[in-house]
Write a structure and sequence with these properties.
Elements lengths: L7 H8 L6 E4 L6 H8 L3 E5 L3 H12 L7 H9 L7 H5 L7 H14 L5 H17 L18 H4 L2 H15 L8 E3 L13 E4 L12 H4 L1 H6 L27 H14 L4 E7 L6 H9 L4 E16 L2 E15 L1
Parallel strand pairs: 1-2, 1-4, 2-3, 4-5
Antiparallel strand pairs: 5-7, 6-7
Helix pairs in contact: 3-7, 4-6, 6-7, 7-9
Bound molecules: S-adenosylmethionine.
């Protein structure tokens, strides 16, 4: 949700001329924008408050050379490490069948045997990608398989998905000659560490859809640590985790959150991704940035994308995507 993958050409066109060696992707999500900067030879730091996003960025951006070998992949798929069966017990009958839940319990335990945090990150990112692919609509806001449309991804086994995903992620790994780093923090705990450029793409506040990442992807988020950094809310049918709060959740706090970010990173070039369906609107955003930056340029792009779900159905919206580029 909210991935800028389809906008990478647009983003590239607008950043390629900027003088910046070091970049912070402050809300990295899928990591695709941070990865774009990595391919451009920048020194990249990424940050996201969700562990699942952090893990993907660590595997593909921070990681310079570690890949999963065939032996590592075999270990994740086939080893019989003792495990506590947490997924089998907690999510029985909710998202995957018993055999699949057992595979996930086993795979998570096996991943702990891999050598080093980068290999573990690739394997966890591959396992979470496998879960998203095996789930109709790729979300965990409903239980059962009622949106199963028979597509091929739903027919592949977890083993097949894991191998496919591990191969894709292995192929992303490269060294751009810089020391890149991924963080898993609340962005409001950052001070300005002298980044030349800070890319800001927070959850979009919109009247038309909710922007709650932890509700949609709670299963993936929990899976990253076998639910040790989050707590399942047992009173919910979906067994989702308690909401991970951010000021971008509500209209009351989103304006001051932007102001605080702009103040913190006022010495860097600031680029904000935002869409026409969202608040603050274009004019407000320019005004807020102008408080901290001498010059604010706006680049526009017409785009159609899935903006979320309503009653379990994917909603497609036509929006204008903006990049607000604030310079000193
Ligand atoms: C719109 S998405 C980013 C999408 C990303 N640019 C991409 O292309 O995939 C927003 C991200 O901000 C993260 N986030 C929200 N509030 C945050 C906070 N206070 N600190 C750090 N990350 C936060 C969410 O977890 C989510 O992954």
């Amino acid at each position: 949700m909210g991935s800028k993958q389809k906008l990478l050409d647009f983003i590239y066109d607008n950043v390629k001329g900027l003088e910046a060696e070091s970049v912070l992707d402050a809300f990295s999500g899928s990591g695709c924008v941070g990865y774009l900067f990595k391919t451009m030879g920048k020194q990249v730091h990424t940050n996201d408050m969700l562990k699942s996003c952090y893990i993907t960025s660590k595997a593909t951006i921070e990681n310079k050379r570690e890949k999963l070998s065939q032996q590592d992949i075999d270990l994740v798929i086939n080893n019989k490490t003792n495990n506590d069966g947490f997924i089998s017990r907690t999510f029985k009958g909710l998202y995957f069948n018993d055999k699949e839940n057992k595979f996930l319990d086993q795979a998570y335990a096996n991943i702990q045997l891999l050598n080093g945090s980068n290999k573990k990150a690739i394997a966890l990112a591959a396992l979470s990608r496998a879960c998203l692919k095996k789930r109709p609509r790729g979300i965990f806001t409903y239980t059962g398989m009622r949106y199963n449309d028979g597509r091929k991804d739903l027919k592949l086994s977890f083993t097949e998905h894991f191998i496919q995903s591990a191969t894709i992620i292995n192929n992303c790994v490269f060294d751009n000659g810089r020391d890149n780093k991924s963080f898993n923090k609340d962005i409001f705990s950052f001070t300005n560490n002298g980044y030349d450029l800070v890319y800001i793409d927070p959850p979009y506040y919109s009247k038309y859809s909710d922007n709650d990442y932890s509700r949609r992807y709670h299963f993936i988020e929990g899976l990253m640590t076998n639910w040790s950094h989050v707590k399942v809310n047992d009173n919910t049918k979906t067994k989702k985790i308690f909401k991970i709060r951010t000021p971008f959740d509500s209209l009351d706090t989103t304006y001051s959150a932007f102001d605080k970010l702009f103040e913190t990173f006022k010495r860097s070039i600031i680029i904000v991704s935002y869409s026409s369906n969202s608040l603050p609107n274009q004019e407000e955003m320019v005004q807020m940035m102008k408080k901290h930056k001498r010059k604010v340029e706006v680049a526009e792009f017409n785009h159609k994308y899935s903006s979320g779900t309503q009653n379990g159905r994917v909603i497609h919206s036509k929006v204008k995507e903006y990049l607000f580029i604030g310079k000193n």
